[in-house]
């Protein structure tokens, strides 16, 4: 697989999923007991939908509103829950997480980073930790970095042309404070492979090239039937 841009990755991952969906061109038993996912294309405003909720998440952790405002927020949030609840679907049927052209692939759980490079030699993403991800004193919460790295390693495995793998371990070295609301870049790649085991590495840097954190993970290819 040659190096691709984020837009190429979006097209090719969709193509890959289409191939996988009908089993053609992909020996799906190599993906363990994972279900065969159909591509779930987001509508034109889905990115705005997710971004609006991310803004709400930021406000959830950065406001101190009077009680009457909180009461109105509860009412309006309950109305939203009522609006969306009828459309709840099982895993694999929501656009959330499947749209690689959107920050965080359109999942509010994931860090809202965009894929810049997606290739056999590695994956690069660019983005920010937001106010929602604050730990303390302007730094990203230490628990949000493993989330970034773990999801990146999943994509690194995919981009490397390997079957679905699960994380056996994930080690993070926090080298410098990782600031929120600052553009950063993360690179991940497969360092070496031993049978089912792919040892992956990643580096998180600021735009001056300072190493903020690095990570190593063991990604283990699933056996047939493994969840
Ligand atoms: C664009 C869309 C992309 C899509 C992008 C999607 C990204 C999502 C990515 C998310 C990835 C995750 O977070 S997954 C969620 C977090 N991870 C998990 O929940 C995994 C839970 N663990 C497991 O299910 C299991 O441990 C397995 C299946 C991973 C492995 O079990 P197993 O099949 O019984 O294998 P086992 O014999 O134990 O181990 C296999 C080999 O690995 C070694 N090994 C196993 N664990 C370790 C360990 N912690 N440290 C060292 N070595 C280990 C063993 O010694 C052995 O080596 P040797 O004797 O062979 O030499």
From TrEMBL:
Annotated EC: 3.1.2.2
One of the GO BP terms on file: fatty acid metabolic process
Gene Ontology CC: one annotated term: membrane
Entry's localization field: Cell projection, Ruffle membrane; Cytoplasm; Membrane
Catalyzed reactions: octanoyl-CoA + H2O = octanoate + CoA + H(+); tetradecanoyl-CoA + H2O = tetradecanoate + CoA + H(+); (5Z,8Z,11Z,14Z)-eicosatetraenoyl-CoA + H2O = (5Z,8Z,11Z,14Z)-eicosatetraenoate + CoA + H(+); hexadecanoyl-CoA + H2O = hexadecanoate + CoA + H(+)
Membrane topology, from the record: Peripheral membrane protein
InterPro entries: HotDog_dom_sf (IPR029069), THEM4/THEM5_acyl-CoA_thioest (IPR052365), Thioestr_dom (IPR006683)
Domain of life the protein comes from: Bacteria
Keywords: Apoptosis, Cell membrane, Cell projection, Cytoplasm, Fatty acid metabolism, Hydrolase, Lipid metabolism, Membrane, Transit peptide
Thioesterase domain span: 137-212
GO molecular function, one term: hydrolase activity
Pfam family, one: 4HBT
PANTHER family the UniProt entry points to: ACYL-COENZYME A THIOESTERASE THEM4 (PTHR12418)
Family to which the UniProt record says this protein belongs: Belongs to the THEM4/THEM5 thioesterase family.
UniProt-recorded name of the protein: Acyl-coenzyme A thioesterase THEM4
Native organism: Rhodococcus coprophilus
Organism lineage string: Bacteria, Bacillati, Actinomycetota, Actinomycetes, Mycobacteriales
């Amino acid at each position: 697989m040659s190096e691709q841009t984020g837009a190429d990755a979006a097209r090719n991952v969709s193509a890959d999923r289409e191939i996988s969906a009908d089993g053609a061109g992909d020996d799906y038993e190599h993906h363990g007991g994972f279900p065969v996912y159909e591509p779930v294309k987001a509508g034109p405003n889905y990115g705005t939908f997710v971004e609006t909720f991310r803004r709400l998440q930021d406000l959830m952790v950065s406001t101190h509103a009077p009680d009457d405002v909180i009461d109105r927020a509860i009412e309006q949030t309950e109305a939203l829950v009522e609006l969306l609840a009828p459309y709840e679907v099982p895993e694999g049927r929501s656009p959330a997480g499947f749209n690689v052209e959107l920050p965080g692939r359109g999942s509010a759980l994931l860090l809202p980073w965009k894929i810049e490079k997606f290739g056999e030699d590695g994956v690069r993403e660019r983005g920010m930790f937001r106010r929602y991800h604050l730990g303390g004193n302007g730094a990203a919460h230490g628990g949000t970095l493993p989330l970034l790295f773990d999801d990146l390693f999943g994509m690194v495995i995919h981009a490397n042309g390997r079957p679905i793998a699960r994380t056996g371990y994930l080690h993070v070295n926090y080298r410098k404070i990782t600031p929120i609301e600052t553009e950063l870049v993360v690179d991940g790649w497969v360092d070496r492979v031993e049978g089912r085991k792919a040892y992956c590495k990643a580096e998180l840097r600021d735009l001056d090239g300072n190493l903020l954190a690095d990570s190593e993970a063991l990604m283990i290819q699933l056996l047939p039937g493994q969840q």
